[in-house]
Specification:
By secondary structure, the chain is of the alpha+beta class. It is about 55% helix and about 5% strand. It is built from 28 helices and 9 strands.
Length: about 675
């Protein structure tokens, strides 16, 4: 029996990770597609109604979605050669079946019939919204194309389904391949004790107990750039990181160019002039012009601030006998020295107060105070790696089951870089019953060492709060239809629940619940807290410019892609000319490892981080007015936003919560960029 397609015997129907093997996926996928085809034929045979057409479409691919979630999540969290090889077969199969549905004229005819009658049917608001969404999605996916154009669209989607996992595979391989071995302790000067210990432990794991190992994984890479005094090693590390998958044997340049060409061709087939125009039709921003207008407003304020900040860092570097002009591998180092000088503390002095287990218990406490949630670890449920923990989530007041919550915190060779939230099971109807979600957050935090627990930087603390916010969006979802559940919302709205949660991380009222010294149990001293809060606006202009740099590059690839004659380096330089505030470095590339847009579904969507920051700053001002633990405000946020998922237009949801449209200047106020 295939454990993927057999009903799980685990509590709450948890995924049987202990039984699943790579060889189970292809048979499970084929079985799921066969079931889906039977359901589709049944839909086509009926006189159309909401239940036998729109609702039936929502459930007909449930088995396929379950297989795909299990496979794709393992592929990026705990990959091996077998899974990576399978991805080249599984991706196109799923894309082909999706197109069989989206491009079937009879299915679209039935959908259109229900859509045209929607105002005369006794539909709930959610059912009406789902009907409109399904009709729009089918139209946008080519349901009205001629047969020859449909065939070309199938070929494009099949190829794109191969390119994205190959892109991620190349980035992971290039990241893992680089090693900076250090055998002279003088080369570690400036590095904090925690980074030295981690480098020593990494070397021991590879059988080199008398050396230190620095890698391109974030917990290793970032401390070295910030603190290591040996400039030539910082440069070597920087160049390695920003040239990942930019040359043989893992060169992503052909994949980037083919991806952009295919996405552009797809958009034109579907009636749009550019891929960005096609994508943004279903975003809050609506058009490339609105995105560019939004980014330009921030640029106007952020660029002068960033230039002043760089001049300030350069001035300090000059005093210290450093380089002029600063190179990118110098900036973080001297910026850290400036922060220490201005605020009389450094990131490392905070680490002892941010033990991972304490921070995790802190976000659990926040969820309890705001939403009446309780997290209880269940060590009996299977996991896919020994680092993974799983928690049962319930309402504290009545023990109502809310969902399962998995955590996977530490880097390893089988895991992609970065941090993300995902689902193994969406909230909604599944296999004949309404199910609660199974949610996971995956990160790459500083690992514990034999003598010390995992102690986080404040940036890592914010990451945990961020991903936990996404998790709450999924865990608190209460919709009827799975395709509208949780984070299935417009991409420029999905970051609101995650980013608003970051605000609590530095609130004095809340820090006492989790920021305690891991050895003494003493709370974070008030003077250190105040210096931390003061430092949070440090280089707000520079940080905004960094995000704008990614956003402008993303939009350029899909709004005005280059001809074949233009190199990636030349294209990047032109696309980011307005946001480039440090010297460019020959032989490096952002695009070749830009997983968000070429391997993560964020094409034409990177701007959404700043867009959602504007929403979250405005929303948190409301919490501040009412009290950051005010249960009525939290209940309003849950009922108007978190529980609704994608069951209504996000602007209507936001206005119901806030009582008005968002104030975009709230972000600039919070960052201290308004004068």
């Amino acid at each position: 029996m295939n454990p993927i397609t057999t009903a799980s015997k685990q509590k709450h129907g948890a995924a049987p990770f202990n039984l699943v093997r790579p060889e189970h996926f292809l048979p499970a996928l084929n079985e799921a597609i066969d079931k889906g085809r039977e359901a589709i034929e049944d839909i086509k045979s009926k006189t159309p109604s909401f239940e036998n057409t729109i609702a039936a479409l929502d459930s007909c691919t449930e088995e396929l979605e379950y297989v795909n979630l299990l496979f794709s999540n393992l592929l990026i969290a705990h990959a091996n050669d077998e899974l990576q090889k399978l991805s080249q077969e599984i991706g196109p199969k799923i894309a082909s079946f999706a197109n069989d549905i989206l491009l079937d004229p009879k299915i679209f005819q039935n959908i259109k019939q229900v859509y045209e009658q929607r105002d005369r049917l006794s539909l709930t608001p959610e059912q009406k919204y789902l009907t409109e969404k399904v009709y729009r999605d089918f139209k946008r996916s080519g349901a009205e194309l001629s047969d020859d154009k449909k065939e070309r669209l199938r070929a494009i989607d099949g190829r794109l389904a191969q390119l994205a996992p190959k892109f991620r595979e190349n980035v992971l391989a290039a990241t893992n391949e680089f090693t900076l071995w250090i055998d002279n302790p003088h080369d570690l000067e400036g590095l904090p004790e925690s980074a030295r210990a981690a480098a020593k432990e990494a070397a021991k794991e590879r059988g080199e107990s008398d050396k230190w190992l620095v890698t391109l994984h974030q917990p290793s890479f970032m401390p070295f750039l910030r603190f290591a005094e040996k400039r030539e090693l910082r440069e070597k590390l920087y160049r390695a990181y920003y040239s990942r998958a930019y040359a043989d044997p893992y060169d992503n340049q052909p994949i980037v160019k083919e991806t952009v060409q295919l996405m552009t061709e797809k958009a034109k087939l579907l009636g749009a002039s550019t891929y960005s125009q096609w994508v943004l039709e279903t975003r809050m921003a609506e058009t490339p012009a609105q995105v560019n207008e939004f980014l330009s407003k921030i640029l106007t304020v952020a660029k002068p601030a960033a230039q002043r900040e760089i001049e300030e860092v350069q001035s300090l570097a000059n005093e210290m006998g450093g380089p002029n002009p600063l190179q990118p591998w110098d900036f973080n180092f001297y910026s850290e020295r400036l922060k220490e000088k201005k605020y009389a503390f450094d990131e490392e002095s905070l680490r002892p107060y941010f033990k991972l287990e304490n921070v995790l218990n802190g976000v659990f406490e926040l969820a309890h105070r705001l939403f009446d949630l309780k997290f209880t670890e269940n060590k009996e449920l299977p996991v896919y790696h020994e680092d993974v923990q799983v928690f049962e989530v319930t309402r504290a007041s009545n023990q109502e089951f809310v969902g399962l919550f998995y955590t996977d915190f530490f880097p390893r060779a089988s895991k992609s870089g970065g941090a993300w939230m995902t689902n193994y099971l969406e909230q909604g109807k599944f296999r004949g019953e309404k199910r609660r979600p199974h949610v996971s957050i995956v990160c790459n935090f500083t690992k514990p060492t034999p003598g010390k627990p995992s102690l986080l930087t404040f940036d890592e603390v914010l990451t945990l709060f961020h991903e936990f916010g996404h998790s709450l969006h999924s865990l608190l979802s209460k919709v009827e239809y799975r395709s509208l559940a949780g984070t299935n919302v417009y991409l420029d709205f999905v970051e609101l629940p995650s980013q608003i949660l970051e605000n609590w991380a530095e609130e004095e009222e809340f820090l006492r619940f989790y920021a305690v010294h891991y050895q003494t149990g003493e709370p974070l001293p008030k003077d250190l807290l105040h210096r931390l809060k003061d430092s949070q606006r440090f280089q707000a202009g520079y940080m905004s410019m960094r995000q704008l740099n990614f956003a402008y590059l993303d939009m350029a690839w899909f709004n005005n892609p280059p001809p074949d004659s233009v190199s990636m380096a030349e294209f990047e330089a032109n696309a980011t000319s307005a946001t480039a505030i440090l010297p460019s470095v020959m032989g490096t590339s952002i695009s070749s490892s830009f997983g968000h847009i070429f391997g993560g579904g964020y094409a034409c969507g990177y701007y959404s981080y700043k867009w959602a920051e504007a929403l979250d700053a405005d929303a948190f001002e409301y919490f501040k007015e009412k009290g950051i633990f005010d249960r009525d405000t939290a209940k309003r946020f849950e009922e108007c936003i978190l529980s609704k998922g994608g069951s209504d237009h996000p602007m209507r949801l936001y206005e119901k919560f806030r009582g008005r449209k968002p104030d975009p200047e709230a972000l600039l106020r919070r960052d201290g960029l308004l004068r």
